[in-house]
């Protein structure tokens, strides 16, 4: 059995608002012990009962962690020995440097720039050979980067737009034997892993908050059909509205930012222009005593601020709104912007996407997975008024 000292230093976060459940923390910590070689192939791990008592957690928590580690392929349950580090799986990929390519259609977007730092951090931790390719709004560059990434590329992280030809290019690289993970947006007809924010919960939390505070219907001012995350926003907004008994005439509260994906890929300034135009149109055509708005993300919300100021409306007084992603500028605006925050950070999206790709390349994950990053609302003056300052 592994000496207790090799696991004694494991620290568990037991706070009510912990970022990860206890069994996931244990899973991560044991994997770390494997990486730093303090846990070696063939070592027997302490019993579930022993660790349950030592860490003061439930028997089921330890058992769940061990079951996940078995799914990861790094431990096995053996009769008479208990839980044992799996030597075959741990040694399969030793000595091989994995080559990974991140293909992005929107690297100049600050949100995805933050996510990409997580990809780089994971690559450094695992010694991956990482190449980043920014294809912008060029369909030809995207298809070339995906279809012909080079013989030595083992896996790809892809941030796509839904443009014709993209799905077939990704499918081609999967059929060539490469592993693919989509980052925060996917292509609906491609069977590949996905790691991204829980966009449904983003809109549901934001809309429910506004409904609870102001007791009036909430306008949806965002993309409706594309990208994939917008479809989840729309579902979350609609579900929240219906949960507050707003079933009828929802169409009048939908302000779609109808921008072609290829145009949006060029620059985030295009999206800002469209959001200003859409907010201006809302304020001029829908006369309300007060407006409640779910603005999709913080960049769209910034357009609402600009349009409101042009028309003499005050954020947090005449207009109440919530964005998402909790970008650094949100808390620094003249009227701080309420936003739905990825837990623990935007960077974590990229980190987890790279981790899932790594686990697929090393065989610890077999089938494609869909991993959603949890979110929480950060309420500020834009949604509750100046008293929140």
UniProtKB/TrEMBL annotation:
The keyword Ligase does not apply. Residues 20-88 form the HTH gntR-type domain. Keywords: DNA-binding, Transcription, Transcription regulation. InterPro entries: LacI/GalR-like_sensor (IPR046335), Peripla_BP_I (IPR028082), Tscrpt_reg_HTH_GntR (IPR000524), WH-like_DNA-bd_sf (IPR036388), WH_DNA-bd_sf (IPR036390). GO terms for molecular function: DNA-binding transcription factor activity; transcription cis-regulatory region binding. PROSITE patterns: HTH_GNTR. This is Ribose operon repressor. The lineage of its organism: Bacteria, Pseudomonadati, Planctomycetota, Phycisphaerae, Sedimentisphaerales.
């Amino acid at each position: 059995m592994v000496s207790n000292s090799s696991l004694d230093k494991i620290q568990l976060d037991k706070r009510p608002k912990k970022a990860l459940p206890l069994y996931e923390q244990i899973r991560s910590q044991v994997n770390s012990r494997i990486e730093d070689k303090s846990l070696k192939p063939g070592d027997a791990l302490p019993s579930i009962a022993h660790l349950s008592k030592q860490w003061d957690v439930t028997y089921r928590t330890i058992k769940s962690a061990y079951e996940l580690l078995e799914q990861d392929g790094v431990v096995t349950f053996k009769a008479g020995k208990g839980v044992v580090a799996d030597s075959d799986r741990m040694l399969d990929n030793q000595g091989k440097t994995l080559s990974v390519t991140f293909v992005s259609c929107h690297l100049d977007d600050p949100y995805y720039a933050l996510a990409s730092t997580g990809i780089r951090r994971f690559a450094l931790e695992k010694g991956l050979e990482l190449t980043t390719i920014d294809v912008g709004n060029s369909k030809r560059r995207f298809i070339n980067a995906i279809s012909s990434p080079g013989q030595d590329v083992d896996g790809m992280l892809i941030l796509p737009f839904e443009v014709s030809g993209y799905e077939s290019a990704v499918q081609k690289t999967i059929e060539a034997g490469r592993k693919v993970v989509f980052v925060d947006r996917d292509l609906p007809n491609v069977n590949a892993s996905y790691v991204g924010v829980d966009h449904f919960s983003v809109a549901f939390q934001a809309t429910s908050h506004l409904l609870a505070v102001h007791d009036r219907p909430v306008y949806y001012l965002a993309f409706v059909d594309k990208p994939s995350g917008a479809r989840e926003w729309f579902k979350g907004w609609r579900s929240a509205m219906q949960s507050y008994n707003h079933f009828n005439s929802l169409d009048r509260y939908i302000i779609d930012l109808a921008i072609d994906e290829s145009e949006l890929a060029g620059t985030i300034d295009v999206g800002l222009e469209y959001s200003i135009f859409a907010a201006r149109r809302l304020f001029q055509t829908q006369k309300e005593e007060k407006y409640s708005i779910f603005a999709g993300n913080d960049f769209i919300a910034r357009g609402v601020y600009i349009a409101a100021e042009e028309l003499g409306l005050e954020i947090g007084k005449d207009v109440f709104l919530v964005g998402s992603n909790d970008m650094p500028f949100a808390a620094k605006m003249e009227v701080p912007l309420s936003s739905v925050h990825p837990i623990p950070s935007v960077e974590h999206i990229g980190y987890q996407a790279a981790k899932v790709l790594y686990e697929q390349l090393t065989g610890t994950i077999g089938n494609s997975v869909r991993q959603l990053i949890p979110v929480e609302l950060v309420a500020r003056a834009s949604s509750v008024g100046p008293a929140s300052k």
